[in-house]
Amino acid sequence: MARRVPLSDPTAVIRTIKEDGGVILTEFSNTSDVERVNHDAAPFINALVEDRASRSLPRETTRCTRLFGRSETAREVWLQQPALLEILNHFLRTVSVPYNDDGAFELGTDAILSAAATLDIGPGVKAQDLHRDDFIWQQTHVNRAEEYTLGSDVCMGLLVPGVDTTAENGATLFLPGSHLWDHSRRPKVEEAVSAEMSVGEAFMFLGSTVHAGGANRTPQPRPMHGFFYCRSYLRPEENQHMWWTREEVRKWSPAAQKQAGYVLDNPFLGHCNETNPVDIFRSNDASIE
Ligand SMILES: [Fe+2]
């Protein structure tokens, strides 16, 4: 079973994730904020659904990508909660001392956004294959210790349901403890539990945890808002910087700009003309005026 811990207790959340690989966060959001994010994604979902219907194509899974920019509530409220960031960076903050000399300094970088999207799972959509999200970065896990090794994960996921999720409508299938499994162990569907959630809860899990989206056997679509983070030195899954406009990014809080990679913890990685990408926006603006 997926255990439940309130977001307000990050120490217990971290302990549970280390033991199980994932946890249901209670008190993640109030209902009206969930409705707001549903509302933010709906026009993009509906346009795709209507387009498919007009071409006699099935509804299937419909995605609202770029959700970080499209939903102010998700970006500025959900994803800036101090307890959430504490948990996220407990697992994904990278700290190193790159030089071995008298002027040695510590380089510490927080997790960055990898992808954000609403997945609207249509009626009849089958379950995903069991997988680990860190396959994107070609991670495999060998010689695993019995206990969790902090620093061994490169990414994490956060799933926030737009409606109550059940085994019937395809709640996320989760294999507790699978973050400790060796790559040679083949996961089985029978080992999965359904991370059933009520609106206001969220499921947070490690990139090494085996999971899958469940099958939707109901006549209603099931929207799930997904937010994915990776270590600062990895290429994010979604090539977001190609999409967002300067005008969009300027509306974001400095914390959100940093999370999305426009303000750098590591000044040597991802700079623009030896400055933060967000500063390039500002200087370009000044040159126009
Ligand atoms: Fe996944």
TrEMBL record:
Pfam families: PhyH. InterPro entries: Fungal_Metabolite_Diox (IPR051961), Phytyl_CoA_dOase-like (IPR008775). This is Phytanoyl-CoA dioxygenase. The lineage of its organism: Eukaryota, Fungi, Dikarya, Ascomycota, Pezizomycotina.
